[in-house]
Description:
This protein is mostly beta strands. It folds into two domains: 147 residues; 72 residues, Immunoglobulin-like (Sandwich). Helices cover 11% and strands 43% of the residues. The protein contains two helices and 16 strands. β15 and β16 form a beta hairpin.
Amino acid sequence: MKRIILSLVLIVLISSFLEAQTTGELTVTVTTSETGGNYAPRNIVAIWIEDDQGNFIKTLMAYAQNRRTHLNTWQATTNAAGTEYNTTDAITGATRSSHNTRSCSWDGTDYNGFDVADGLYFVWMELTDKNATGNYSSFQFIKGEDDQSLSPEDVPSFASISIIWDAVIASVFSQNDIPDIIIYPNPTKGIFTIKGENVKEVEIRTISGELISKSNSSIVDISTAKPGFYLITIITNETKVVKKLIKE
């Protein structure tokens, strides 16, 4: 009897755990600025996710190849997780020569590729323009079934912050019905190509839904658009597909 009860409890716990792993995407956009260091405006910057216990989850962006040791907060959290400077699936690059709007995303998985449980998480940002610790801040959000759109107040070196969690709604199509459509390069500096069959129309919208442009060409130029995330709606003979694009 006890064994049966224990088995039932385990089943309930496992079911609850699986149900509390909402699929979705977090988009983070921020405009950086100097800390007053001697290498300014050159800077290195990292953005990553931690859980509510301070455990490292995943790096989203790391423009800091050679001087990454001066991003002390990011180094410490990745080192504590036993994976120092981990950049699995992250946007990476060398030291930035100037400041601009930076954008990155998170698919709700950890650096091992496993879905993490719903709950309270923190977006961390760190930037320095000197051979020492610069500015860093964190911003909380809830990963769950409800969408979230947050605009935290400006902090030193980080302004115009946008943190958006989009919970995924299950598709009405089977996996075999989804056309094989690819956008490249992504991120893009302006011009990108859509690869797929029977593409009839392409719409480019901001995250808030504002229409930027519409065309029937598979080569699209958004060089004049501001850096950030955009929704690319691709209409084919069979269906409509929406993909996210990062404009650097």
